[in-house]
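Q: Got a minute? One more chain.
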Amino acid sequence: MTAAVKRDSAGKSSQRLLANASPDSKCPICLDGFNNMASLDRCLHQFCFRCIHEWSRNKAECPLCKQPFHSIFHSVKGENDFKEFVLRDFGVFPPQEPGSK
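A: Always. Here it is, folded:
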C-alpha cells in the first residue's frame, strides 16, 4: 500500500494513507471507501454492504464477474464472527427444465 509523508508546521512527519492508494480500498459500486465491507458468497468480491444490498434488489449478480450470488457476508469481525444476509427472492434464477442449458 502506498503511503505519503506529511510534514506539519513543526517539521514532524506523520504517515497517512492516500485515499486513492489502491483500487482494492474502494467499493467498486460507489467508488468510495468501504462502509461495512461485504463479500458475496460465490466469488467473494467485496463491496459496501449497503451498495451490494441495493444492487441485489435489481439483480443478484456480481457487478464485477457477473456470477450469480445467493447471500452477502457482512459485519465481519473475525473468521467465525460475521453476519450473512440471504437473498429471499430466488425467482431471479428460475429452475431450469430438465435437459435445458
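A: The longest strand covers residues 71-78.
Q: Perfect, thanks.
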